[in-house]
Amino acid sequence: MTAFDRLMAWSRETQALAQVAGRLGWDQETMMPRGAAGQRAEEMGAMEAVLHARRTDSKVGEWLAEAEAPDTAGHAQLRLIRRDYERAIKVPGDLAAALARLTSRAQGVWAQARATDDMALFAPVLSEVVELKRQEAVALADGTGRSLYDALLDDYEPGASAAQIQEMFSQMRPRLVALREHALAGPQPPALTGDFDEVAQMALSRELAERFGYDLGRGRIDKAVHPFSSGSGDDVRITTRTVANDPFNCLYSTIHEVGHACYEQAIDQAYHLTPVGQGVSMGVHESQSRIYENQLGRSRAFCGFLYQQMRDRFGDLGVDGPDTFYAAVNRVHRGFIRTEADEVQYNLHIMLRFDLERALMAGDLQVQDLEAAWNDRFAADFGYAVDRPANGVLQYVHWSVGLFGYFPTYALGNLYAGCLHTALRRDLPDLDDALAQGDPGPATGWLADKVQRHGGLFAPQEVITRACDGQAPDAEPLLSYLENKFGALYAG
After folding, report:
1. What per-residue confidence (pLDDT) applies to 492?
2. Based on CB atoms within 10 Å of each CB, which residue in 295, 388, 440, 476 is the most buried?
3. Residue 186: what pLDDT?
4. Quick one: which of 471, 332, 467, 476 has its CA closest to 415?
């Protein structure tokens, strides 16, 4: 075996173990008995200790020094293994294991605090998470000249920086705020009314998942507090949630997570259980979930199909006809929860979190002051007060599991989706005919070919640029799409 062969064999075993660790996390969110939380934290810590030891083994460095890539994919494998190795050796093993144990425990505390609207219950463990993440960031930033936040951001969107994201947000905010104010100033379309059987919601969500290309022979749909996708290759699982008076919560959460899952399922099988065999970044991942959910799932054409499907299952929806249904699906409305936000206001939620978590990492904001800071910023940005912690600072699992630097990738995903949608529509001028029949296949096939099958073969922005015929990612396609869509919906 060559050094490259040995390196790839070692990497495949490490990737397989990482998938096992991921399955423990999936189980914790879906099926694990509450009383098992303490033991699960120890299990997660033990798994992370094993993984960290493998990722930092000196043999990896020796093989990297000797390995010669046999082809383009091999060069990408070496690039990603080298990047992960150089990051991993900066983080002490005991810190990595401590973070895994702590975040597993913190996740359970967060769920309890959210259910009881008790930030005081969550604050102590969140303070511990912030402290350990700052220690990790210090280790990762050492010798790079990067900020602590940039060091963490690099885990989710390699090559991005907080300064670049701040500049992007500064360009987007004025037009998004103006569009929101225009939409909220006029007459509002009706919302759906009534109670919608939650078993029927799950049945329809399963049908929609398959229509969007999710292979349930290699996946499954369960319920969780916060919807998510987990796994890669031949075992990719998603979760959704149901609310009796809000079926869109379930249906569009499912379509969103299916976008993530289809990305992982569509990656070239030759790359499975290798660094290239997973989504290249969270921003690109979010581009898939957001384009499935919004540009496809909330399009006028697909909404016409969905309207009839829901009428058949639930009877009267409280809206009169497919056009009114389309307006209800895309209604710009006051709300607190990012995952329930309309397309116009979604990115404003991300901007709020981006600023708060940067302040936490910089030490400019303490956890005991986080709830007040959140509430003040929300009132300033959205014009009304947060009514309870579960709708504010406690609404998301991300900080409990240490995902600092993750939130900006949601906005990057929207930006990338805007670019991809422009290119997709140019290549598929008759797409609406298929969507009106409930068939997103032409679009999801285009995305599988242009984006998903490559996995980590190319750098994140290169993936988008290649898919868009050489056009580099830019905010203009997204902003134009939003202004055209919602300008027409709220034309007065």
Report:
1. 67
2. 440
3. 83
4. 476
Specify binding-site residues for Zn(2+): 256, 260, 286
Mark the binding-site residues, compressed into ranges. Answer: 256, 260, 286
pTM of the model: 0.94
- Those residues whose C-beta lies under 8 Å from the C-beta of residue 80, and which sit 6 or more positions away, are 275, 276, 456
Does the annotation mark 257 as catalytic? yes
User: Dihedral through CA 211, CA 214, CA 216, CA 220, nearest 10?
Assistant: -110
* Residue 383 region by backbone torsions, left for phi larger than 0, else alpha for psi between -120 and 50, else beta: left
Query: What are residue 450's phi and psi, to 5 degrees?
Result: -80, -30
The distance of Cα 476 from the centroid of its chain, to the nearest Å, equals: 22
Kindly state the tokens that stand for 143.
């010798």
CA–CA separation, 386 and 307 (whole Å) = 32
Chain centroid to Cα 129, Å, comes to 21
Provide the 3-class DSSP secondary structure of residue 154. Answer: coil
* Residue labelled with tokens 């605090």: 113
Query: Tokens 């329930």, residue?
Result: 340
In the chain, what are the domains? 3-145 (no CATH), 162-489 (1.10.1370.30)
DSSP 473: P
Which amino acid is residue 22, in one-letter code?
G
Distances in Å between the Cα of 304 and the Cα atoms of 310, 437, 438, 487 are 10, 9, 9, 20
Quote the CA–CA distance of 254 and 204 in Å, as a whole number.
10
The one catalytic residue among 48, 257, 357, 371: 257
Decide: helix, strand or coil at residue 437.
coil
- Which residues share a beta bridge with 295? none
Per DSSP, 331 falls in state -
Query: For residue 420, which of 457, 466, 454 has the smallest C-alpha distance?
Result: 466
Give the closest residue to 136 by CA, choosing from 407, 409, 404: 404
pLDDT of res. 226: 83
What's the token pair of residue 170? 């500064």
Can you read off the two tokens belonging to residue 333? 């409305």
Residue with tokens 């990492």: 361
pLDDT beneath 50: ranges in the chain: none
- Is 465 within 8 Å of 288 (Cβ atoms)? no
Among 163, 459, 149, CA closest to 284: 459
CA distance 368 to 131: 13
SS3 (DSSP) at 447? helix
